[in-house]
Amino acid sequence: MTFINYAAREINCKIVYYGPGLCGKTTNLQWIYDKTNPQSKGKLISLATETDRTLFFDFLPLDLGTVRGFKTRFHLYTVPGQVFYDASRKLILKGVDGMIFVADSQEARMEANVESLGNLEKNLKEQGYDLKAVPYALQFNKRDLPTALPADEMYRQLNFKGEPTFEAVAMNGTGVFDTLKAVAKLVLTELKKK
Amino acid sequence: MELVCKQCQSKFRAAVSFPLAAPVRVACPSCGNQMVLKPRAAATEPGVAKRGARLAAIADEPRPFRAFLGEHLRRLGFDVEYFDAGESALDFVRRTRADLAIVNVYLRGKLGVEVSEEIKADKDLAKTRVILIGALFRANRFRANPTNLYGADEYIEEQIPEKEFRQIIRQLFPEVGDTAEVPLETREIDEARRLARLILSDIIIYHAAAVEQAIRNNNFFEVLKGEIEEGRKYYDSRVPQRVRRDSEVYTETLQQFVQMKREELEKLQTGT
User: Fold this and answer.
1) I need a labelling partner for B41 at 20 to 30 A (CA). Which of A120, A153, B66, B246 fits?
2) How, if at all, do strands A53-59 and A45-48 pair?
């Protein structure tokens, strides 16, 4: 759910990066953080236990325009990807405005992708959301690996509702901002409707 | 009888008539390709097919999507034949009175929409259901819902989720129920195995070095005790008790992995 800061004339939106373990969610976030203007971003915060990592930071993109005179500040989150940290993932989904599912292109991780996507749908439902209605983008990460499955095959297995889909190599930034921009636009479109 | 060459797709007439009593060898006059026509049980009595399973023809380019459709149809109790061209698919449907034809809108030679129209115009094929496959689908590009299905009963696109496809099949063939699928117990054990593999996959990917070392030192279960226990808790929370009582899938999956890695290691060491 968006939070409006009237004093700062900002609308705060929450975007969550979801996906299986080590698929590149943190790499996406780290790349965005590194390439964002220092004046317009907050601190990169890691809420980490020994193995369960959650990253968070917020930033104010300059080129996405305003909604009724309010600037939009995006809060980006990652979730722990390992299957057994389901409780943390559920918590992070609370109040979400947009979702990005990062899929690992390696054939050996396809089963983990499918499981994680099913888990996302289920956890959103538990929070009262429907993935069909939530602004959502799909990213096929690690496209540079020789073991990467064909994008069409991944799309067939992972597409949920004809969502915008991007091929990416998060390590070098390929596709990272394209994915974020697509979901940010969808979030803004939803905001303007309200 | 008019035939279509599987190799060059050219049509030719052969002096054979259906139903066949015995296999017949014919050669294409254009390219010389030889084909053997085999008698089909289903074709011997048109309209009163004595086959056990339902029969489906899928005409689409050879690609993973075609295999996806075939696999799900088989699970629902269909026998499946694949075709690359419209003519051969139509010929098959006519000969066998297939229950279902899934055809891509665009096919080599005869278009899928033409195949659909011809099936629907054939009184002998009144029971054959037709599903059209949209020719091209890409995310982020403009798409429009089809306005004309050319007589087909349903329309699907490549991105169709598994559940939706099965739903369509069940709508077209109401007798295809859960009974046609694998029994509940088997599905539950399969699900438990899948979950165990996922947990193991996470342990391996997050602790790659420790796993490798533990395999070498033959102490996988001691070194990764914490992770294995954490995985076990999650496994127990997801898998029904009756499945856990009847089978030890989680431990078996870990043991199989360790054994497989040990064997790989031994092969490396002995150079075999």
Assistant:
1) B66
2) antiparallel
Q: What is the pLDDT of residues B32-55, one digit of tens each?
A: 777 777 665 443 333 334 445 789
CATH of the domain at B135: 3.40.50.2300
Lowest model confidence (mean pLDDT) among A74-88, B46-60, B61-75, B107-121: B46-60
Say yes or no: B59 and B158 in one domain: yes
Which amino acid belongs to residue B204? Answer: I
Residues B95 and B171 grouped into a single domain:
yes
Q: Which residues of B touch A121 (CB under 8 A)?
A: none
Which residues form the domain of B23? 1-39
A86, A108, A155 ranked by CB distance to B139: nearest: A155
CB contact (8 A) between residue A112 and residue B159: no
Instruction: Check pLDDT > 60 for residue B179.
Output: no
For residues B112-118, average pLDDT:
92
Residue in A16, A2, A177 with CA at minimum distance from that of residue A73: A2
The pLDDT, as a whole number, for residue B45 is 39
Q: At what angle do helices B249-270 and B208-217 cross, to 10 degrees?
A: 70
pTM beyond 0.80: the answer is: no
Nearest residue in chain A measured CA to CA from B233? A84
Residues of B in contact with A165 (CB under 8 A): 139-140
A165 and B CB contact within 8 Å:
yes
The interface predicted TM-score (ipTM) is: 0.76
Instruction: Summarize pLDDT for B192-240 with one digit per residue, the tens.
Output: 988 999 999 999 988 989 999 999 999 999 999 999 998 999 899 989 8
Task: Give the number of C-alpha atoms closer than 13 A to the C-alpha of residue A53, restricted to the C-beta side.
Answer: 16
The single-letter code of the amino acid at A147 is T
Residues in A touching B230 (Cβ below 8 Å): 84
The residue out of B184, B201, B228 marking a domain boundary is B184
Residue B136 has a pLDDT of 61
CB burial of residue B186 (10 Å; 0-12, 13-18, 19+)? exposed
Say whether A111 and B68 touch across the interface (CB within 8 A).
Answer: no
Low-confidence ranges of chain A (pLDDT < 50): none
Residue contacts between A and B (CB atoms, under 8 Å): 64
Burial of A6 (0-12, 13-18, 19+ CB in 10 A): exposed
Contact at CB, B139 and A84, closer than 8 angstroms: no
CA B12 to chain centre: 32
Q: Which one-letter DSSP state was computed for residue B122?
A: -
